[in-house]
Write a structure and sequence with these properties.
heterodimer, A: alpha+beta, 7-stranded mixed beta sheet, 6-stranded mixed beta sheet, 21 helices, 29 strands, B: alpha+beta, 5-stranded mixed beta sheet, 5 strands
Chain lengths: ~800, ~160
């Protein structure tokens, strides 16, 4: 009998359990925010800046106001009267600065797509018609677009009150990198550019805000990863007591980090609802998603790696710079994008000297927020590309070179030169697992024979790390109101079935299924006896929601502890009823059983019946507690997951096209709760990483105009070009939780962005060329080939 | 322009529908807003992503590239009707077992497109399946599980 059949014999954790909540999505029964309508609902369309930087000299809304179906047109000044501007400055990062951001611009705009007016009408179509009639008197201002340009002292500040366009800078120095580089036997150097891109959730951002002036209550449906975070934001900025704000996140059509950000247009919709005392819906269309969604990456870097005469890495030097748009993203800042890059660099390797510096620039582009990987793909890619180059210089196979330079087993727990704290990393085991499933030696043999025929195939083998499930030390000192705790309530219903409420949210990853598996195993029931509810700030335990690959690690641990506590309560009640002691009993198969003999003593429905309806049968003073809540917050700053990706590519040196021939992943995400879902997190992450590395690029021209704000122009991976992916697991349970799960959500993307760079360079190495810019367009590949041919 | 309407009569999911509709309204807005059939989704509204795929007179089409008035006299099937008919119950079971949907936003369009391939009969190979699905963007799964689900269904139907 399979564990899914409801025998409750345990064994759900670790099994390939399909998601009970996916069936309705496959049958068209999903309920996403834009699917929800309420009586009296109005629609908002935003007038957005056509310029990257401009002063608003005046706005004439009269024609729009008179347009069909229009209820009211709002400018920034009206909204700012009820909605405090967003100020996103990290208290723990001295020198960090950011200008106040109005949710609708008041006197100037600083990126194309910034909202300048909101038209509220009886339909989205009528609101859009009227938005075209809003006349703005613009005075164009000079734009700052390039990272180095923005960081230069001559750069005109986008916000003069800030003095310059430097958002933040930070350096990490371990040992003496300059001295170590001077003494190295071999030093390799590489240039890097990681293009800016967009999350492109297929369901765009959407919010339905409904202010009830009678009850003083704001109800919000929102396509978001954290209803708790948004409850806090609406409460504080709109001056509504927190218990009168309820944020529900229904089905969410893709998050990937985008939907943990706070976007001004969504907040404006809530402010408008409060002003008009009407429900207001805003759903971004695709062009405004490209323009106004938080964006990601956009780094440049130069890095060096030094090795000694024995082929040991001694030193790394990593100069990083990035742009984050015109403001620091509210409320989580964009600082992790640079910090994680320089912290994660070199993390797998044993070296003594390191210099890493990140400089963060303000430019007239969209705001950079959170997205899958947050800076770590940069640190990993820079490191692994240098490792390959050093291995080639030392004439050592790159797999062997990694093995020689990984941290030794006895070194754990350790702090890497960049400051990554790792209780353990299973680097060699993952390297063996990955090179095993890809049959690395055979690929090398084939590669050599094909090169003689003018076929350029590349083999990439790259290590990644992923800092997952951040603990309270991460955001606490920053002043950002971000919870790193999660909770779970488990309730036995009278008929013996179980309901869980969790603060973890699920945008398709399957975390709610994992939670059901964990609790069901604790209570000895099958998947058909349990349902997990989430995404409602009013009724679920307070927590973080979904970010930083924390669902199983933190939310799963809370669920395990809640399930274990309910089990204890059930056994206590059963012991009272059965006139025995709880330690002689256990739960399995939906029954209370004798721990020694396994004999059934009573089923859970009987516990429910007596516990809820027949307390008269119990001794006086007995208080059945058949609902339990537990929370979990980690002591650790984060848990480092790790793994190795292998990629096999063919580069057409005549056309510059890259064809992916094979992909392999060995991943250590701690204890695997559900391999079916973990594997699909990896695969989905890899394909996103391939998209980032080969196709995706949010392009602006020199004047601040986005050039490719449609899905026809912004290229994404489609089924035809993508590979099948083989996966192996290495399991190192995290040490200080009972569950032992680590993060998985971001690893695929981090590894893919990294290994593709290695694989393409490997293909081009015999020609003396290397790629320096993601995405690796055919044009870029032909450019670097032309350079070496000249 | 916004008020201009036309009267259309069509069959949607086997039921006759007769409505006054704005001439500028595209088919998927008509289905979602006028008929409250929210299973078809909007991803780009310019014909690239395939989230709005519905069946019109037996052919899978982009609901965002067709006006509602163009569907006058047509037989339209959405994911709701397709699911109810049981025509792709096996495919939908395979999607579930294989975890071929994550956020589920692309899934109705993906099922609609895959149904067309399966209805053509035979057992397409993985390259053919990938090619057929290449007009449907999935941002979550990486496609492999979807290809697996379609392949398994085709094989099961062929008795292999």
């Amino acid at each position: 009998m399979s564990p899914m059949d409801g025998n409750g014999g345990g064994g759900l954790v670790g099994a390939r359990v399909p998601r009970p909540n996916v069936r309705r999505l496959i049958h068209g029964k999903g309920r996403y925010t834009d699917d929800i309508s309420v009586p009296g609902m109005l629609h908002v369309a935003f007038v957005r800046s056509p310029y990257g930087h401009a002063r608003i000299k005046g706005i004439d809304t009269s024609a729009a106001q008179a347009s069909d179906g229009v209820v009211r047109v709002f400018t920034g000044a009206e909204i700012s009267a009820v909605f405090e501007p967003l100020v996103s400055v990290a208290a723990h990062r001295p020198g960090h600065k950011s200008a106040p951001q109005h949710v609708i611009a008041v006197d100037k705009v600083s990126f194309q797509g910034e909202p300048v007016a909101a038209v509220v009408a009886d339909s989205r179509a009528n609101a859009e018609d009227a938005a075209d009639l809003v006349l703005v008197d613009w005075e164009e201002l000079p734009v700052v677009m390039g990272i180095e340009e923005a960081l230069s002292p001559d750069s005109p500040p986008i916000f003069p009150e800030l003095g310059d366009n430097v958002c933040f800078q930070h350096a990490i120095d371990t040992g003496d990198a300059a001295k170590a580089l001077a003494g190295a036997a071999i030093v390799v150097e590489h240039e890097f550019e990681f293009g800016r891109h967009s999350a492109v959730t297929l369901e765009s951002r959407s919010v339905l805000a409904d202010w009830d002036p009678v009850d003083g209550r704001l109800d919000v449906f929102q396509s978001h990863q954290s209803p708790y975070q948004m409850q806090d934001v609406y409460s504080r900025h709109l001056g509504i007591p927190e218990h009168k704000v309820r944020v529900t996140t229904p089905d969410v059509g893709g998050g990937f980090g985008l939907k943990i950000n706070v976007h001004g247009d969504e907040l404006a919709a809530a402010a408008i609802s409060k002003i008009l005392c009407r429900p207001v819906k805003f759903t971004a269309d695709r062009i405004e998603s490209f323009l106004a969604d938080c964006q990601t990456r956009d780094h440049i870097a130069t890095a060096k790696l030094g090795i000694d005469a024995d082929g040991r890495i001694t030193v790394m030097d990593f100069e990083n710079a990035l742009s984050v748009g015109a403001y620091t993203a509210y409320i989580r800042f964009g600082l992790a994008e640079g910090m994680m890059a320089i912290m994660s660099a070199a993390a797998p390797y044993s070296l003594s000297d390191y210099h890493g510096r990140t400089r963060v620039a303000y430019v007239n582009k969209g705001i950079v927020g959170m997205f899958r990987g947050v800076g770590v793909p940069i640190g990993c890619a820079v490191t692994e590309v240098l490792i390959d180059k050093a291995a080639a210089a030392a004439n050592v196979d790159p797999v062997e070179f990694r093995r020689r330079n990984y941290h030794r087993e006895e070194a754990y727990p350790l702090t890497s030169v960049g400051g990554y704290h790792a209780y353990h990393m299973s680097l060699e085991r993952c390297l063996d697992a990955c090179t095993g499933i890809m049959d690395y030696p055979a690929l090398r043999t084939e590669q050599a024979s094909l090169r003689d025929k003018g076929v350029y195939r590349g083999i990439g083998v790259a290590t990644f790390v992923e800092a997952a499930a951040f603990g309270p030390i991460y955001y606490g000192p920053s002043g950002a109101r971000v919870s790193t705790q999660d909770g779970c309530t488990v309730k036995l219903e009278p008929s013996g079935v179980v309901r869980c409420n969790t603060s973890v949210t699920d945008q398709g990853q399957g975390t709610l299924t994992g939670i059901a598996q964990i609790v069901a195993d604790e209570l000895g029931i099958g998947m058909d006896k349990i349902e997990v509810l989430a995404g409602d700030s009013a009724t679920t335990p307070y927590g973080g929601g979904a970010w930083a690959s924390r669902g199983m690690t933190i939310g799963g641990e809370a669920a395990l502890r809640a399930g274990r506590a309910l089990k204890a309560n059930i056994l206590d009640l059963a012991a009272t009823i059965l006139q025995t002691t709880a330690d002689t009993l256990t739960l399995a198969g939906g029954e209370v059983r004798d721990r020694e003999t396994g004999d059934a003593r009573m089923d859970l429905a009987e516990i429910g019946r007596i516990g809820y309806y027949r307390q008269d049968m119990l001794p006086p003073g007995t208080q059945p507690e058949l609902m339990v809540t537990r929370h979990f917050v980690p002591d650790a700053a984060y848990y480092v997951a790790n793994g190795v990706h292998g990629a096999h590519v063919e580069v057409d040196v005549e056309t510059g096209f890259v064809n992916i021939l094979g992909w392999w992943v060995a991943d250590d995400c701690g204890r695997v709760i559900n391999p079916l879902l973990v594997d699909e997190q990896i695969r989905g992450g890899v394909i996103q990483g391939i998209g980032n590395a080969l196709y995706e690029h949010t392009q602006y021209d020199e004047g601040g105009q986005m050039l490719n704000a449609t899905l026809a122009d912004y290229l994404l991976p489609m089924a035809g070009e993508m590979p099948d992916i083989k996966i192996a697991h290495v399991e190192t349970p995290v040490p200080d939780t009972q569950l032992g799960a680590n993060g998985i959500g971001e690893s695929g993307t981090i590894g893919a962005i990294t290994v593709l760079w290695c694989a393409i360079n490997d293909a081009l190495r015999p020609l003396g060329a290397e790629v320096t810019k993601q995405p690796f367009t055919p044009e870029h590949i032909l450019d670097v080939l032309a350079k070496v041919r000249d | 322009m916004s008020e201009e309407t036309a009267h259309i009569s069509l069959v949607v999911n086997g039921e006759p529908v007769s409505k006054e509709v704005q001439v500028r309204r595209h088919l998927v807005d008509f289905l979602r807003l006028d008929l409250e059939l929210t299973g078809s989704h909007l991803g780009c509204e310019h014909g690239v992503c395939g989230a709005c795929t519905v069946r019109v007179d037996g052919i899978a089409v982009r609901g965002c590239l067709m006006l509602a008035v163009q569907a006058d006299g047509c037989d339209v099937v959405t994911i709701e009707g397709l699911s109810r008919s049981g025509e792709v119950a096996d495919l939908q079971d395979a999607f579930e077992q294989r975890n071929a949907a994550q956020c589920g936003y692309c899934t109705p369009g993906m099922v609609m497109t895959a149904a067309e391939l399966l209805a053509a009969g035979g057992v397409p190979d993985r390259v053919e399946i990938r090619d057929h699905l290449s007009g449907n963007l999935c941002r979550c799964t990486g496609y492999q599980a979807i290809v697996d689900a379609v392949e398994e269904t085709a094989k099961a139907r062929a008795g292999r």
